[in-house]
Amino acid sequence: IIAADKNYNLIRIITGFKGIQGEVTFNNPMGVFVKDNGDIYVADQGNARIIVSDENLNVINIFGKPESELITGNFEYRPAKVVVDQYNRIYVQATGVFEGLISLDENGNFLNYYGSNRVEMTPARLVQQFWRRFMTREQATATENFIPIEYSNVFLDDEGFIFATATTSTTYDNQIVRLNPMGNDILRWRRLRWFQNSNFADVYTDEHGFVTAVDSVRGRIYQAEPDRGT
Fold first, then answer.
1. Residue 89 to residues 32, 35, 106, 178, 202, Cα–Cα distance (Å)
2. C-alpha R_g of the chain
3. Phi, psi of 125 (to 5 degrees)
4. pLDDT in tens for each of the 230 residues of the chain?
């Protein structure tokens, strides 16, 4: 983990945190979040955990795979991005999770899936829904399953709302969402005017509400005016 100042001058390189029994190292860390008090949250994907330290790099907590009846036993936990709100709720974007962001309390206990993404209503899905009316149960079971879009990144704005980006969308809807405390998308742009075949890997909003998004396919950075999406 590289820490730099606002001018990109190197402050320090963090290779691990200080634990009671020695150094706690990372294995393919994918995301980092720093709270106002200096606490650092790391999505340590290779070790399937979230590590929390104070500003002096002393380990505070280590949260492993969350447990819940909603999470299957064979689920491979691969946390990729993490943010923490003002109430110390932890939101984890995990690779391969289509139910939404994983929401944890401050002790790492599973709360719910937050901001569950929707299945896209594509022409193929509409056709399948029509024909399923005339299928037997066995035929319907054998048809293609449509799954929701997977989130690819997450960002906490100044107002405490969560922005999230989605992987490639067939209809190019809901590529970027803004989630309220109930997990509902409140972004006014129902269809952002992004180019097709884009895959947004990251999103950021400034204090004026301007949205900046990174397109990993086209190698471009797009910006949108507040409440307009252009």
1. 15, 12, 6, 17, 21
2. 19
3. -70, -40
4. 999 999 999 999 999 999 988 999 999 999 999 999 999 999 999 999 999 999 999 999 999 999 888 777 678 999 999 999 999 999 999 998 888 899 999 999 999 989 876 544 444 444 444 444 544 555 444 444 444 567 889 999 988 899 988 775 555 566 888 888 777 888 765 455 555 667 888 999 998 888 898 988 888 898 887 665 44
Distance from C-alpha of 220 to C-alpha of 202, rounded to nearest angstrom: 11
Strand partners, 176: 165
Q: Decide: residue 164, CB within 10 A, 0-12 exposed, 13-18 middle, 19+ buried.
A: buried
If you search the block for the tokens 């879009």, which residue do you land on?
149
SS3 label, residue 46: helix
Whether the predicted model's global pTM rises above the 0.70 cut: yes
Hey, what long-range contacts does 190-193 have (CB within 8 A, 24 or more apart)? 191/229, 192/224, 192/229, 193/229, 193/230
Question: What's the sign of the alpha-carbon dihedral 47, 53, 58, 64?
Answer: negative
Written in H, E and C, the secondary structure of 124-177 is HHHHHHHHHCCCCHHHHHHCCCCCCCCEEEEEECCCCCEEEEECCCCCCCCCEE
Strand runs labelled E in the chain: 2-4, 10-13, 16-19, 22-25, 29-34, 40-44, 49-53, 59-63, 79-84, 90-94, 101-104, 110-114, 151-156, 162-166, 176-179, 200-205, 211-215, 220-224
